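Lab manual, section 2.4: Encoding a predicted structure.

Procedure: take the sequence of the chain (107 residues), apply the prediction step described in section 2.3, and record the output as structure tokens. A sample record is shown.
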Amino acid sequence: MLNKNGMKSLRNLLLFAIISVFLLHTDSAFAQTNGALFDSGTNFLNALSQLLTSTWARIIGIIAVAILGFLYMLGRVSMQITIAVIAGIILVFGAPAIVDSIHGSLG
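Recorded output:
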């Protein structure tokens, strides 16, 4: 049974692991043929967008849902946290469709 400090350190460790995966992951999206990644803001933002919705993000989402399932079975997580994580996953992977829908209705 974890106390508040134990849960906080576990959460910080999980956050550190997720950020490390994103920072250390090399992807072909970063290999620009016409210049460096930071030559223009567009190249950087395109690479960031691809990184945040790539296969690695999908794997992290699957792991997060699986962990939530185990914690829910053990009675160690609240519905509020479960709904927040699932809503976050929906927003991350639905972001392109949401923005395209809004852009299409305004343009």
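Check your result against the sample. Residues 35-107 form one domain.
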